[in-house]
Amino acid sequence: MLLRPLRVLLALVLAVFLAGCSSAGGGGTSTGTATPAPTRTVAAAAPTGTSGLPTVRVAELPPEARKTLALIAHGGPFPYARDGAVFSNFERILPRKERGYYHEYTVKTPGERDRGARRIVTGRGGETYYTDDHYETFREVVADEDR
């Protein structure tokens, strides 16, 4: 049957793999002592907000985003007709809420002729999110003393 050659091939592949793993990172000298493997540094995960998303402090936002936040706080006037429109959360990155819970606002992008990719999205409960890649990712906006 075909099963036996398949098992032999699988055993051979496994043996080669294991032999490679045991000698990997050896970089040994002729005396047989191995050079220690370099240590890896792992970047700390970004702090998360109440939504579980990464956070960004207001002071860390681009100046145009801070201006948009000020306009939202004062109720406008907004430079784009779509500002304040319902954000439907089709991407399902933000916490799931009923339709109409979220609203979006444009953050001007210098050099862009249209609305660009940057947005502030607010929730009815007072939460605020920022995206600079047209809803691919979001960060929860937190007060400067939070986080």
Provide a quick synopsis of the model.
With 147 residues, this protein is α+β, with helices and mostly antiparallel strands. The longest helix is centred in the first third of the chain and has 21 residues.
Description of the structure:
This is Guanine-specific ribonuclease N1 and T1. Residues 1-24 form the signal peptide. It comes from Streptomyces vietnamensis. Keywords: Hydrolase, Nuclease, Signal. The protein is α+β, with helices and mostly antiparallel strands. It has a domain at 62-142: Nuclear Transport Factor 2, Chain: A, CATH 3.10.450.30. Helix content is 22%, strand content 16%. The chain has two helices and six strands, in the order H-E-H-E-E-E-E-E. It has helices spanning 3-23, 63-74; strands at residues 55-57, 85-87, 102-106, 119-123, 128-131, 139-142. It has a six-stranded mixed β-sheet with strand order 1-6-5-4-3-2, with helices on one face. A hairpin with a 7-residue loop joins strand 5 and strand 6 (139-142).
